[in-house]
Write a structure and sequence with these properties.
Elements (H helix, E strand, L loop, with lengths): L1 E13 L12 E13 L11 H15 L2 E2 L13 H13 L10 E10 L2 E5 L3
Parallel strand pairs: 1-3
Antiparallel strand pairs: 1-2, 2-4, 4-5
Length: 125
């Protein structure tokens, strides 16, 4: 089994609905996201997936949420913008982009850091 991981950062604000504490108020983070892709075979170049492609796909998602108030952006206008839900959102958004890869690959996990010491991970079943 092979794995490729790409990390990128973004800045955004959110307010956690139904949270009893300071995080219910609008506040921001310098987030970090890591997407881990796995597969059993390499392409003819000897790569699982091109790092540049993964970075580009992540960039398309980040362009929608970077320097934004997440609570105003679908699906977070309805879904609470917790780190857990943001990780699942990245998984959902990235999955469709893998369909055209030269070899079969899948996302093993997406990890989101709110701070250097706090993170949430989404792994598909």
């Amino acid at each position: 089994m092979f794995e490729v991981a790409v990390e990128q950062g973004f800045a955004s604000a959110h307010a956690l609905r139904n949270y009893k504490g300071r995080c219910e108020n609008v506040h921001g983070h310098n987030w970090k996201v890591r997407v881990v892709i796995e597969g059993e075979k390499l392409d003819q170049t000897g790569m699982l997936v091109d790092f540049l492609d993964v970075k580009s796909w992540m960039g398309e998602i980040l362009d929608r949420i970077d320097h934004q108030f997440l609570n105003e952006i679908p699906p977070f206008d309805v879904v609470n913008p917790s780190a857990e839900n943001i990780a699942e959102y990245f998984y959902q958004q990235m999955t469709g982009r893998l369909d055209g890869t030269p070899v079969p690959v899948r996302i093993r996990e997406v990890k989101i850091w709110e701070t250097e010491i706090q993170s949430a991970t989404y792994r598909p079943k």
